[in-house]
Amino acid sequence: MVIPVEVEGNPARRSVGPDGTLTRMDETGQSDMPVTYLFSGYARLPQDVSHQAVYKRVGVVAEVDQTGMIVDCSFTLVTGLAREFLSRLLKGRSVLDGRAETEALIRDRYRGHSQGALIYALRRLFEEVDCSPLELNQDTDASRPGG
After folding, report:
1. 10, 58, 93, 108: most buried, per Cβ within 10 A?
2. Which region holds residue 92: left if phi is over 0, alpha if psi is between -120 and 50, else beta?
3. What is the DSSP letter of 45?
4. Among the residues of the chain, which ranges form H helices?
5. SS3 of 53, please?
6. In angstroms, rounded to a whole number, what is the distance separating the alpha carbons of residues 95 and 125?
7. Domains of the chain
8. 53 in the Ramachandran plot: left (φ > 0), alpha (ψ -120 to 50) or beta?
9. pTM value?
10. Distant-in-sequence, close-in-space partners of 56: CB < 8 Å, separation ≥ 6
């Protein structure tokens, strides 16, 4: 059941689905917003990393679509180049499958001092996925670990 939510001054309606998801709908009842989920993971930075004094922890935040694909992501790193590089590495990858390959990709291609903390933060993000409606709604698959 979709419960309409009135939005004053906005021609688009907002609706709350049975799972509590808020979506925008046009006048025909079609949603113009894909359903996505936001996950995050954090890890303590090593003492010898330059931005440890600024952040203390590194964060990995990913927006994931219903199929488990990362559609956008960001990182709490000092340089924009490092943030953009990691974002390019992860966009389009699945948070449900190929986790070891994703970790290996970061280990191989990201050679910064925060590498270990980033991988740990990514693992924490995967733990959040495992407890989410995204994971719970997936069909069980014997070929997938934990599936």
Report:
1. 58
2. left
3. P
4. 52-55, 80-90, 99-109, 115-130, 133-136
5. helix
6. 9
7. 1-33 (no CATH), 36-135 (3.90.1010.10)
8. alpha
9. 0.70
10. 44, 45
Sequence-ordered list of residues with C-beta below 8 angstroms from that of 142, at least 6 positions apart, any chain: none
8 A C-beta contact, residue 41 and residue 101: no
109, 101 Cβ separation under 8 angstroms: no
Which tens digits make up the pLDDT trace of 86-143? 999 999 999 999 999 999 999 999 998 889 999 999 999 999 999 998 876 665 444 4
Q: Report d(CA 138, CA 117) in Å as an integer.
A: 29
Q: Do 125 and 62 meet the contact criterion of CB atoms below 8 Å apart? A: yes
Predicted local distance difference test score (pLDDT) of residue 91: 97
